[in-house]
Each structure stands twice: as C-alpha cells, then as structure tokens.
Amino acid sequence: MRNIFIGGAWPYANNSLHVGHLAALLPGDILARYHRQVGDNVIYVSGTDSHGTPITIRAKKEGVSPKEIATKYHEEFTKNFNDLDFSYDLYTSTMTEYHEKHVQEYLNKIFKNGYIYEQEELQDYCPNCNTYLSDREIVGTCPHCGGVAKGDQCDSCLATLNAKEVKDKKCSACGTATVEKPNKHLYFKLSAFQDKINALKDANKDVWRFNAVKETEKFLDMGLIDRAVTRQLEWGVDVPFAGFEDKKVYVWIEAVMGYLTAGRKVAEEKGIDFDEFMKKGNVKSYYAHGKDNIPFHTVIFPSLLMAIDDNLNLPDSIISCEYVNMNNEKMSKSKGNLIRINELVESFPKDSVRYYMISNGPENKDCNFTIDNFMQVHNKFLVGVFGNFINRNLSYLNKKFEGNIPNGEIDQNIIALTKEAFETVGKLMEDGKIKLALEKAMDYASAGNKYYDDNKPWVQVTEDPTGFANTTYTCVYMMANMSNLFAPFMPETCQRVKNKLGLDKRVVWEPITIGKDLKVLDNELLFERLKAE
To answer: How many Å apart are CA 90 and CA 259, to the nearest integer?
Structure first.
C-alpha cells in the first residue's frame, strides 16, 4: 500500500466556477478514485481560497463583509463539487480556525529556520483613499511586456512581479497616482531557493507536464525574488509575530499552505502521522490545477516546503492543464462567453460532463468548448459505444430470457484483453496521462461491441446455444469489468451498471470474475441521446 497525496487547486471565492476550473480540477478526483481502487492510502484535499484583496474590494462595493462574500462562494463551490461527485477527503476553506492555527505554526518554523526577515521600505500609498495599497490594489504597466499589470502579476505574460517593478502605478479603487511612504513588512527569502527549484525542475522534467517545465523555466530565468509575507489588510490570517498586529498574512503564502493544513486535518481524522506521511520517499504526490497556477505549485509551494522542513516530500506529478476557450474565444464574463458549472450540471448528466471534460479537455493544449460538440461526444461515445454495449446485451436478455443470464465460459482472449486494459489504463493514470487513459478504457468498450457483432449471439441463440451462452456470459464479464475500469471517470454510471447485474458494489483496479445464475435487475438506458432543443 502506497501513500498518495493529491491536492486540487483552491478556487478563489470571488465568482462562480466555470468549465475552465472544472477542466483543471477534475483530473485530481479521477486520480484519487483510481488510487483508492488500487488500494493505496489516499489523502485528497482542496478548499476555497477565501482571503485577499479582490474579496475585500468586492465586499466594499456590495456593502457587506468579506466573510459574507467568501462564505457565499464557498457554499456554492462545495455544491458544485458534490453535484459532480468529487471525492475529496476534505474540501475546506482558508477561513477556518484550524487553517489559521497551522499556518501560523508553519510560519514560525520558517522564521526559526531563517527564511523570514523584517524590512522597512517605501510602500505605495493612495493619498485620496488615505491607505497603504496591497499589490492587488495597484494597476500599472508590466516592465517585461508592457501589458496591463497588477502589483504582483502581469495579466498578459503572467510574470510574477514586485510592486516596485510596475510602471505608472495607480490606485485600482479611485485611479489616483500612488505615492510612496515607509512601512514595515515581513519577507520570505524565495531567492534563496533559486538553485534548488532549478534542480527540482530538472529532476522532474520527464514527469511534470511540458507547460509546467516551461513556465517554471520562465520564472527561474527572470530570477526568483523575495516576496512579502504580510499585507496591510483587515481580512485574512493574523500574523503570529509581535509588531505586525495591523497586518495579515499575504494570501499567496497561506493559500498554498492549505495543502498542508487540510492534509493534516484529514490525517488526524484517519489516525495517520501526517509528518511521517509527507516525508521524502514516503509518499507520491499529485497537484491538479490550471496553467496560470503553475508557478505557485512548482516554485512557491516547494520553496515553502523546503523552508519548513527539508525532509518534506516535494511535488512529484504536476497535473497542469492548458486553457478552455468558449466558442473559439477566450472566456470572458463581460462578453457572457463562458458557461458556469452551475449551468452545466443543471442541463446535463454529471457523468457526461465528467467524460467530456477529460476526453476533450485541455490536458496538453488549449481546447474549445461548445454545447454542440459536447452533445456530439455524448451521443457518439456514451450512447453509441458504452451505453450501446450494455443496452443491446441486457435488452436482448430481458426480451428473450426474462432477464436470466445464461451460465457459460469466458473467452480466454477477452480475459487477456481485460488484464491488458487494466494494466495499460493504470500505467497511463500514474503517469498523469488522464486523457489517453480514458481513450484506452473506451477502446475496451469498443472491443465489447466488436466481440458482440463478430459472434452474432442473435444467430447463436438458435444455431449454437452453447456458443450463445459463452458469448453472453463473456459480454457480462466485460460489463462487470467496465464498471471498475471506468469508475474513476464515471462513478455514478458504473454503480448503475453494478446495480443492473447485482454485482458487488466494491470498486477495485484489477480484472474481476462474475458468479453464476446472474439476472438482469434493471434495463433502463444508461444514457439518453441529447438533442439540440
């Protein structure tokens, strides 16, 4: 039994989730389900990123507290994930007392290890609003590409910035040009980890996805710079050091620490020593997120881990997807050119959504989402291949044999094919090639349809009853194994297949046998054809 840690990126609580978020996070759930089927010891966590400037800005505009904004979206996100059968061991929030307590403990460790220092420096100040500005409250021009930039990141080239670098700075709230006034902050020595992050990247260049390697190289080439640990805010995690009571912990550092705080919480509930679980060599880790989150998972988070304890396991597999476009355009709230998860799950079956977002998702390149294409994929593969194989077999048995499944012998070639399918799909899953793994699983379903067509059981039933029994029993064997092979991708559908045949409800990752004297218990269609209306 292996230790497996899976972290899904923490969505930010200032707007509804859309299909891009789903494409980035769904692979984490599929990996968690797969590893549980294998029998591994899995901790799978995520949560809502509930602090930071955008939430406070929105709260001011709406005349409510930041907590009300964050709570509203946390509850919505939780429902979204439940609606799509995400199997988090814990989906939490950075607002919890548990998270705050352990973030403060980790910060104390980093400080004792010499990677946090105090510095007084000139900080951007808005004379109109009469307040110091956090990085996200500044807008200006990127020094690298000339694009529009916030104080901590360029929206165009995605470069991580220090507010000092940004040109033509203005207050994002009122548009007033900023002035500089002295202020005291704590800083994290990110620059101290330049060589170690470079070595981590080189060691994992054949494991991390291509975009993760390239984005990390881009940040390293610019040179890692120290980053502020504290912010001049009223909403966030309290700073655990004297003299900084008027500030909060910067969200970039406490949000990624959520992997550790949430993981520790799950470990406590399971009676696991989390520190031992997360040591180098004791665990394999996956982190699922979008392209724009790559540096936080390949540069910042591993640097924090090394600053806390050099024996902590660093990220192994970076499951970083590309972008989802909508109707051949970049998704935009102002254009109304996006589809929210709320809308998707209200309109379509959950497993159709899960299947589509992997089979046509942005695993290695940008993808284009359209409702027409979604329906075509559903009808072609879920109705025409997967559902067709199940339905044609069981409908015939119901019609001709009152649902009784004849006892027979399983074709040895199909037994070998089944074993190969589990081995192939499992290897691809562990390599982070989720899309190809699903393709190979669907090849197995296609092979079932071909086997049925080649053996013509509707002819065998009168001309070769023994052959009919063997063909039918072999097809039922394939259905039983499809219910496990596809379970990480389409969990609800696979349980329905088990229910139809009265199979053991357990899901495992190995070829299974079936008993004798089985009966079809339910002949409802797994998938209905979708129509344009």
So the answer is: 10
